[in-house]
Each structure stands twice: as structure tokens, then as C-alpha cells.
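Below is how a single chain appears once it has passed through the pipeline. First comes the sequence as given, then the structure the pipeline wrote out for it. We keep one example in the README because the format questions we get most often are answered faster by looking than by reading.
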Amino acid sequence: MKTLKSHFRYNTSQRNGIFFLLLFIVFLQGIFFFVDFSSEETNAVSQNEIVAFQHEMDSLKRVELENSIPKIFPFNPNFITDFKGHQLGMSLDEIDKLLAFRAKGSYINSTKQFQETTGVNDSLLTAISPYFKFPEWTTSKKIIEKPYSKITIEKSILKKDINSASAEDLKMINGIGEKLAKRIIDYRTKLQGFSINDQVYEVWALDKEIADKVLQYFEVTNPPTIQKININTATFKEVLAIVYLDYELTKKIFNYKNQVAEIQSIQELKKIDGFPLDKFNRIALYLDAK
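Resulting structure:
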């Protein structure tokens, strides 16, 4: 008991120490409750940093938006593909009219003829026509003067049918050797023949510059007769063998066929989620629903 009491006995010096310690604690508590430690300068700096950061984010968003808008470079409207036409804002019907016109071996040589052929509206034509780049021979004319008249002769090239061109014919073009000529013919065989001129650009590792040269001397004069596959009776492997279809797209087509029991028209394929509309015209060359 005495031991316990000894722990609670303090001498004068200890009591003074305890008193000052309590007084110091009370002083600190008073400072904590009554003194404002917030800094207006710090808040102002933080707010300025937030505003600057927001401005920077807005600038980055504007740059990203500008970069996301497709840039249009000069191009020959005769070689507009499904994808290119879609980018330009053309409808499927307008693209089909252009491809049908080109399939006949005909060429568009002016902005007016482009509108007459495709039926695009004036506003779209105004937006894209400044980028049209026609071959020189469509605008270049040689004048021969005679005593009483002037005869205008347009430069032209007599083009051969690309579907009957041999490897030797293709090798006559500067830039095409043995391997590249064989690659063009192999792809032509895989397609069962070129149906439209633009398919030349699909040949693997064939530069656009070389493809342009090919189409200066060759074109689809006699479109091939393609053996179409009945989508309702064809096997998965048969459909997958089509050049423009990969495994995932073939799987989607068969899943859709299973849902509807029978596909009534190839146009139904456009309803499939994720179906590449820009490739529809090419895929439709090989498929039938009858």
C-alpha cells in the first residue's frame, strides 16, 4: 500500500513541471482553435494551376479533333473505292453508279461528267471537286495548224484487257519484274478475274505508283464471269475462301444465317453488326442467296 502511494506523491518541483506542461497544452489548443492556418496565396496559386491545366487540356482536345478529321489529298475520281467514297460522304448508290460506269471501261474526264454519272448533290460536289486530279491527257491538247482550220487531237492510250494480260505484258511496265508480274496474275486468279480496275490496288506489296502505271496501259475490258456461292447452302470453308472475308466476318455471316434460318437477299448482310459496308460490292460479286 505504501508502494502504491509513493507513485502519487510529487515534490514541489514535479508539481510545477506538471502545471507548466498543462499550461503549455492549453496554450497549444488555444492556438489550434483561434489561429487560421490557411493561406490565401497558396489557394490562389492552386487555382491558377488548375485554370492553366484546363486550358492545356482544351488545346490538346482541339488538336486531337483536328487530327481526327480525314484529310483529303488530290485524287483521280475514276479510282474512288468503296471506302474512299464513304470517306468523301458519297452514298452507296452513288458509289455503285460510279463503279458500274467504270466496269464498262469508261472514264470520267470532268467534274460535270462525275456529277452526271454519280448523281452527287451540288454541295458535296463543291466540297470534293477541288481535289479532283484528272490525267494530263484529258486536258492536254495538241493543236495542228493548217491553212484554213485547226484540228484538235487529244492524247490517248489504247488500253489492253488486264484479264488477258500475260506476265510478259505486265513486265513491259517500268517497275514490274518477274515476281511482281506473277503476284498480279496470282491475285487475278484468286479473284477469278478483275471485275473492277481498283482491284489492282489490292495486290500485295504493289505500290500505288506502280498500280497507277498498270492502269495506264490495262483496264477491265471484259469483266469475268464469277462462279457465285449460294450463301444458304455453302459450307463455312467455302465462304471463308472468298478473298474479302476473314474468319471473324465469316463467323458473323453464319451466325446471322442461323438466326434468320435463310438469307433472302445478299443485301441482308448489311444488317450484320460490324459488316464492312465499304467491301459489300466486292463481296457481293462472289455470293448469292438463290
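The mean pLDDT is 81.

See the next section for the split statistics.
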